[in-house]
Specification:
The chain is an all-alpha fold. It has 12 helices and no strands. Helix content is about 80%, strand content about 0%.
């Protein structure tokens, strides 16, 4: 086993776990990290998706009480629990449909450092506008259970931007989109976490299936390393972000995106 490859797998796992739920684009950071580390080819493309399973486990564990409450409520036919579950399904459908229909074409054309840099900068500017808007206009929805089906549809449509433009950030699209559509920052963030579960689980299953012919022992070891580091770093990130959004806005993330995008464009010839 190549210990350098093991180190690179661990590094990708850390990048995935730390960036998956922040509005800075995990896919964009993974594309850039792979480019810098010289990790190209079918296996690493699949690896990038498969290690998201660690992030899924982190979210499920952190929200296990809420998930249990919803499942119990659904069994008791509670309207609130069913509405929440349907909201998650509704918001998931647009991104899944788009990815299944055009995923390969989008990946072939837009999965590159330049496209990521542009999406980072544009996304950063959008975050600045969203934060200014929320500071001026009180959000209409301040509780997760108050979200309507229309709210869920709007957030789901916003999520499709992350499918089309790598570097947009799935969490960023859902959180900032939710804020634009009248959700409070906290509600949008929590709903984004729940949307991550079906989206990332589906991406993990498909990514693993696409590279099933490459799953021999050495590669499975790399997957295990990536999974463990993704899981641990995602645990840290999820808990930190939940505390952060209670007292902070996303302006800092916006400027980080803009600066990083500008640096990538300036260094594009070497990537």
């Amino acid at each position: 086993m190549d210990f350098i490859l093991m180190f690179k797998a661990a590094l990708l796992g850390i990048v995935e776990g730390l960036t998956e739920f922040l509005p800075i684009s995990s896919t964009g950071h993974l594309i850039l990290t792979q480019s810098v580390l010289g990790l190209h080819g079918e296996f690493w493309d699949g690896f990038e998706v498969a290690i998201q399973f660690g992030a899924i486990i982190a979210v499920i564990w952190e929200f296990r009480a809420r998930i249990g409450t919803v499942l119990t409520g659904m069994a008791k036919k509670e309207e609130r629990s069913w509405r929440f579950a349907v909201n998650v399904v509704i918001a998931t459908i647009p991104a899944v449909a788009l990815a299944l229909a055009f995923g390969h074409q989008i990946k072939d054309v837009l999965f590159n450092p330049i496209a990521v840099a542009v999406a980072l900068i544009v996304g950063g500017l959008v975050i600045l506008v969203a934060e200014r808007r929320q500071a001026a206009i009180a959000p209409a929805v301040t509780e997760l259970d108050d979200m309507t089906y229309l709210d869920a549809i709007k957030v789901g449509l916003a999520q499709t931007l992350a499918v089309i433009f790598p570097g947009t950030s799935r969490s960023g699209a859902t959180i900032i989109g939710g804020m634009f559509f009248g959700l409070s920052r906290e509600v949008a963030t929590h709903f984004s976490f729940f949307l991550a579960i079906p989206i990332l689980l589906g991406a993990f299953v498909k990514g693993l299936y696409d590279i099933r012919h490459l799953l021999h022992f050495d590669n499975l070891v790399l997957f295990a390393i990536g999974f463990i580091f993704s899981l641990l770093s995602a645990f840290v990130c999820v808990r930190w972000l939940l505390k952060f959004v209670a007292t902070h806005n996303f302006v800092g993330f916006a400027w980080y995106r803009i600066i990083l995008g500008a640096v990538i464009l300036a260094c594009a010839r070497w990537l």
